[in-house]
Amino acid sequence: MSDGIDIGQGTFIPIAEIELRASRSGGPGGQHANVTASRIEAVFDVRASAALSRELKDRIAGRLGPRVTAVSQEARGQARNREIAIARLRRRLADAAAPRKQRRPSRPGRAAREERLRAKRRQSERKRLRRRPAEDD
Question: What's the CA gap between 53 and 48, in Å, rounded?
Answer without folding.
Answer: 11
